[in-house]
Amino acid sequence: MAKYCEVCKKGIVSGNTVSHSNRKSRRTWSPNVQRVRAVVDGAPKRMYVCTRCLRSGKVTRG
Questions:
Q1: pTM for this predicted structure
Q2: DSSP classification of residue 21
Q3: String of b and e for 11-45 (b: at least 16 CB within 10 Å)?
Q4: Residues sharing a CB contact under 8 Å with residue 25, sequence separation 6 or more, in sequence order
Q5: Which residue of 10, 13, 32, 39 pairs with 51 in a disulfide if CB–CB is 3.0 to 4.6 A?
């Protein structure tokens, strides 16, 4: 799966998991990226798009 959205360039973000006893360990958050057929310049193209861009209408499916 792609690691970033091809529309908004949203990618993997890293940070800490903090336990109840306040111990820290590294972790990552991945965007919810789907492979869809989108219309780009009048022609359909397969691309990886995050669900936020799909829901907001930044991408027209086709």
A1: 0.79
A2: T
A3: eeeeeeeeeeeeeeeeeeeebebeebebeeeeeee
A4: 16, 17, 19
A5: 32
